[in-house]
Write a structure and sequence with these properties.
The protein is of the alpha+beta class. Helix content is 21%, strand content 17%. It has a four-stranded antiparallel beta sheet with strand order 2-1-4-3, with no helix packed on it.
């Protein structure tokens, strides 16, 4: 039998209010983890602000995906150069599919899917 007061419970980093383990009091007994805000800027000027636990600088990512355009954003352009990033930028799922398949392949896949669908529903070809 599984007991409802399980010892395993998820707690966010830095959370104190209502998230303390059952054996700790909620009146400041939990230790608040220090946090820092990091700002990332992409090539289009979009700003992404993230909150991290206060870690050594080398453990915080230097690059992050932009939330608005999907491009690569950096904390510091001089320190985190983007030479190895693709020049194409963000690609949609459809663009990746088009790289793998030709137009003829797409027509063949569509025709096969329609044929199976018609066979399952008992519809005539055409």
């Amino acid at each position: 039998m599984l007991h409802s007061a399980s010892g395993f419970r998820g707690i966010r980093v830095g959370a104190t209010e209502g998230a303390a383990p059952r054996h700790e009091p909620l009146d400041g007994g939990a230790v608040r983890t220090p946090r820092i805000r990091i700002i990332y800027l992409c090539g289009k000027g979009h700003e992404t602000t993230l909150v991290f636990a206060q870690l050594p600088d080398d453990q915080i990512p230097g690059v992050w995906d932009c939330r608005r355009c999907g491009g690569t954003a950096t904390r510091d352009e001089a320190q985190f150069a983007l030479e190895d990033t693709p020049a194409d930028g963000f690609k949609s799922h459809l663009e990746y599919v088009k790289e793998r398949r030709s137009s003829q392949d797409a027509e063949d896949v569509l025709a096969g899917a329609l044929e199976r669908l018609r066979a399952r529903r008992g519809l005539p070809e055409g």
